[in-house]
Amino acid sequence: MPRAIWSGAISFGLVNVPVKLYSAVSRKTVRFHQLHDSTGSRIQQKRVDPTTGEEVPYENIVKGYELAPDRYVVITPEELESLDPAKTRSIDITDFVSLDDIDPIYFDHPYYLAPAQGGAKAYELLRQAMEESGKVAIGRVVIRSKESLVAIRPAGPALAMETMLFPDEVVEPDSLDELPVEEADAAKRELQMAQQLIDTLSGDFDPSKYRDEYRERVLELIERKAQGEEIAVQPAAEEPAKVPDLMAALEASIKAVKDRTEDGDGEPKKKPARKRASAKKAPAKAKK
After folding, report:
1. 6-26+84-168 has which fold?
2. pTM of the model
3. Under a CB-based contact definition with an 8 Å cutoff, are residues 247 and 190 in contact?
4. What is the per-residue burial (b if ≥16 Cβ within 10 Å, else e) of 168-190?
5. Cα 185 to chain center, whole Å?
6. Burial of 91 by CB count in 10 Å (0-12 exposed, 13-18 middle, 19+ buried)?
7. Tens of pLDDT along 163-190?
8. Which one, of 11, 6, 9, lies nearest residue 137 by Cα?
């Protein structure tokens, strides 16, 4: 059962909604340790002064911000603590906006908010009001001495909260040098074919159809090696990248999709009946 990582209250106007915060994701990353190839012993990381070669005790390590190469300004823990945001137990709502107005690039980490003791009625009132209005709450919260911008929205029977990036943390696409120039504009026929391919591949979002296939292959490899199997790795031959013929590639892509989705009589394959979404289904990312 998930454990609450924070408790407090959603505050908007004079209304307080007691809540508990839970992480909405459980990362499935395969983690490795560093070992000595001869002894199999796990490698230890040590803090060493490169000028003396000696290990530095933790109590002798300070924080420094690099102003220029090999030039630092030292900041003490007390100086940083004096700048910490005021520690509160409140998610302060400042605005209600439309979800479509938020570019998904601003979203950082998802959480769930559940009602705390005595807050069920106010929680459900807020959730229903937001659901019917189609609005998302924007606010600020301090967690572990870090202030975050957050968005709160209905997610089925729960409220989801996502920490957000601040505007100066988002790289503007106009800053990319490799963006297409006017000479790269698509021809009308190419655009029509691309739209046809998109239409052919369009459907409802079903997260259950996507899997982390690389992670599954890594875990399978680990299992095989743990059982003593020898794995022969063949180097992949690199092929030179070819400049595609856009029209030919689009036509071939559309044909391949149609062949995959049609039965032997040329009729579209019937899609299996969709299962009713579970109440515990994770909230999908926002669409712009």
Report:
1. Ku70; Chain: A; Domain 2 (2.40.290)
2. 0.72
3. yes
4. eeeeeeeeeeeeeeeeeeeeeee
5. 32
6. buried
7. 999 999 999 988 888 777 666 677 788 8
8. 11
Quote the CA–CA distance of 154 and 131 in Å, as a whole number.
6
Mean pLDDT lowest among 4-18, 114-128, 223-237: 223-237
**pLDDT tens profile 12-53:** 888 899 999 999 999 888 999 999 999 999 999 999 999 999
Q: How far apart are CA 258 and CA 85, in angstroms?
A: 57
DSSP code string of the chain: ----SEEEEEEETTEEEEEEEEES----------B-TTT-PBPPP--B-TTT-PBPPGGG--EEEEEETTEEEEE-HHHHHTTSPP--SEEEEEEEEEGGGS-GGGEEEEEEEEE-TT-HHHHHHHHHHHHHHTEEEEEEEEETTEEEEEEEEEETTEEEEEEE--GGGSPPGGG-TTS--GGGPPPHHHHHHHHHHHHHH-----GGG---HHHHHHHHHHHHHHTT-----PPPPP-PPPPP-HHHHHHHHHHHHHHHHB-TTSPBPPPPPPPPPPTTPPPPPPP-
- Of residues 197, 210, 208, the one with CA closest to residue 256: 197
Pairing of the two strands 6-12 and 90-98? parallel
